[in-house]
Structure formats: structure tokens, C-alpha cells
Amino acid sequence: MSKTKDLVQTVLLDGEKVLPGSRRPDGTIRKERRIREGFTPQEEQEVYLSRGTVTRQDVPSCPGMDDAVKATAAKQALSKAAKKNEKRKEKAAAEASGSLPAASSSSSKPSQAPVAAPAPAPVPVSAPAPTPAQNWPPLVKATPVVAPVKVAAPTQAKKVTPKAAPAAPAAQVVEGPKAAAERQLRALRKKARQAEGLQTKHQVEGVALSAEEQGKVDKLASMETEIRDLEKQLAAL
User: Fold this and answer.
1) Which residues contact 75 (CB under 8 A, 6 or more apart)?
2) Would you tell me the crossing angle of helices 211-218 and 220-236 to the nearest 10 degrees?
3) Is 6:22 a contact under the CB 8 Å cutoff?
4) 17 with 9: CB under 8 angstroms?
5) pLDDT tens-digit series, residues 107-144
6) Are 237 and 178 within 8 A, CB to CB?
7) Spatial separation of the C-alpha atoms in residues 200 and 211, rounded to whole Å
8) What is the pLDDT of residues 193-208, one digit of tens each?
């Protein structure tokens, strides 16, 4: 009765099926499952067949061809490795069915080492009689061979080039009073332009100045006085 209750399905208005929860044999509880409309389990889905497989399946056989001829043609089309595998399978099936005799028991026994034949007895050989001393060839004293000794070629002494003496420092150009006054005038005019720019920013744009910038603005009047004095000095030179 419990099994029948577990298989009861509830169909909702939208087509979904509801499988109620159930109890497993080990006591655990299965959760409730919802199955949407049109769902097909994986084990019930059709197996995909490629176009080549479908084409090979739809090839018509020759009329009047026997099944044995088809099997022979199929075997001939197999590769060497496939043919070996087929032979092994046929042999294993024949041994399992008992049509082929099992391997002899003698093959299962460990092979015994071959017994070596007795070695023949040695035949005594008589040594040749010594010849008289007067028949021997005269002894020749060998002269020692001295290997040639390679003498290394004398190495040439490296030429040492004397280092060039350091160049004398360039003579300092003595600046005249007019050139010094012009250089000082250019520097003062540059500082005066910077101070005027800061003063304009502070007065027109309202930018707050730092202490250093404010010091430059305060020195503007003194810089203008120095510029006028230098201009007079240059006019007199």
C-alpha cells in the first residue's frame, strides 16, 4: 500500500507533475520533485546518430547476397589488429565452450634443466723438444724510440701604449663689468616678472599665496629700484 502511495503523481494546471516525497529502505526521506511538462529523462532520450552512421545504415544490400558472404566481406574489411582481436575472441569462446582441449598438464609443469653431457677426458699433448741453442736466431738489441718534443714558439711582448696626458683645463673667461651688470639685470628682471605674476593672481583672481610667494611679492619694489640703478650703470659704461 505504501509503494502505491509513493507512485501517486499530482498534475498541476500548468502541466507540471509533482512526485511526493517518500521513504527509502534505509529510513532516509526523498524530497518532493517537480517535473515540467514535456521533460524526457536522459535514459529515454534518442541517441544521436551522425550523418555518416545514418548513411551506412540505409545502404541497401545486394539482392541474393547470403549472410555468410556479408560476414566474410566484413571480416576482410577489418584491419590486422581487428582480425587478431577477432581470432582471440573466437579462441576464448571455443575454450570456454569446451570444443578445444585445454592446454596439456605437461606445459604447466616447470621445465627441468637439461642434463649436461660428461665432458670428454683431456688428451695429453706432448711438448715439442727444445731445439739446440745454435739454431736459434741471433738476438737483436732494440733501440729506444724517442718521441719528438714540441717546442713552443716564443711569445711576442705586448706593446704598451703610453696613456695620453689629461687635457689642461680651459682657461676661465674673465667677465668684464659690463657683462656682469647685464647678467645681473637679466636675473632681476626675471624675478620681477615672477613677482608681478603672483601679485596679479592674488589681487585679480583671489588666489591665496604661500609665505615664500608673499616674500617675493614684498621684494618687488626693491627689485625695481635695483633694476633702475643697473640700467644707469650700463648707460654710463
Assistant:
1) 83, 86
2) 40
3) yes
4) yes
5) 444 445 555 555 556 555 555 555 555 555 556 566 66
6) yes
7) 16
8) 998 998 888 888 888 8
Sheet architecture: strand order including 33-35: 10-11, 17-19, 33-35
Number of H helices, E strands in the chain: 8, 3
| Nearby residues of 62 by Cβ (< 8 Å), 6 or more positions away | none
Mean pLDDT for the chain overall: 75
Residue 197 vs residues 102, 203, 206, 216, 228: alpha-carbon distances, Å: 116, 10, 13, 10, 20
Q: What is the pLDDT of residues 168-181, one digit of tens each?
A: 565 566 678 888 88
Residue whose entry in the numeric block shows the C-alpha cell 507512485: 7
Q: What span, in angstroms and rounded, lies between the C-alpha atoms of 134 and 153?
A: 55
Residue 155 CB: number of other CB atoms within 10 A?
6
Q: State the residue for C-alpha cell 534518442.
A: 46
Give the cell for residue 217.
611679492
pLDDT of residue 204: 87
Confidence of residue 15 (pLDDT cuts 50, 70, 90): confident
Q: What is the pLDDT of residues 81-105, one digit of tens each?
A: 888 888 899 999 999 887 555 444 4
Q: Write the DSSP string, 202-218.
A: IIII-PPP-HHHHHHHH
